[in-house]
Amino acid sequence: MDTKNKKDLLEHLINMEINNLLDIKNTVDINMVCQLLTDIEGATDVIFIASRASVVLADYSAYIFNKIGVRSVGYDVSDTMGLDSIRNADRSTLIIAFAFPRYPKSTMVTARYLKNKGFAGEGEAPAGPDPLAGMTTK
């Protein structure tokens, strides 16, 4: 690939990401975000759970919220190691689950389990069918 093609490819990727970022304002429910932030603010601890493609969201969210003083951790619930750590957490810990419709099974199973064990939880999914519907408390 010559330099011009590399430059064109880079420009295309950057423009695509800029458009994706600008489109967020059309897909995010601001009332949901405000409620989520209120719940996080009132929580003693926050656990973010996810599996497969959405794990990066859980890890990044935990990183950002720790930076601003909210004790949080992210877990990949694709295996049992994450669940082993979560189930020993205090029941007042807020659980936030991220799931994409195409990869939700382990996140759904974990969210359902934690809800049944008395954890407060919220689910976040992109626009479209919500794979976490009915499995969280909010």
The helical percent reads 40-55%
Strand content: 5-15%
The strands making up the biggest β-sheet line up spatially as 2-1-3-4
Question: Main sheet?
Answer: 4 strands, parallel
Instruction: Assign the structural class, choosing from mainly alpha, mainly beta, alpha/beta, alpha+beta, or little secondary structure.
Output: alpha/beta
**Number of alpha- plus pi-helical segments:** 5
How many angstroms separate the termini?
A: 50 Å
| Rg estimate, integer Å | 17 Å
The overall pLDDT average reads 82
Which geometry do the CA atoms define? elongated
Runs in which pLDDT lies below 50 for 5 or more consecutive residues are: none
Element order, helices and strands? HHEHEHEHE
- DSSP summary, beta strand count: 4
Explain the overall architecture.
By secondary structure, the protein is of the alpha/beta class. The protein contains five helices and four strands; from the N terminus they run ααβαβαβαβ. It has a four-stranded parallel beta sheet, with helices on both faces. The longest helix is centred in the N-terminal third of the chain and has 25 residues, at 3-27. 28% of the residues are buried.
Write the layout of secondary structure elements.
Blueprint: H1 3-27, H2 30-42, E1 46-50, H3 55-67, E2 72-76, H4 80-86, E3 94-98, H5 105-116, E4 120-124
Summary keywords:
about 140 residues; alpha/beta; four-stranded parallel β-sheet; 5 helices; about 15% strand
Concise structural overview:
Helix content is 51%, strand content 14%.
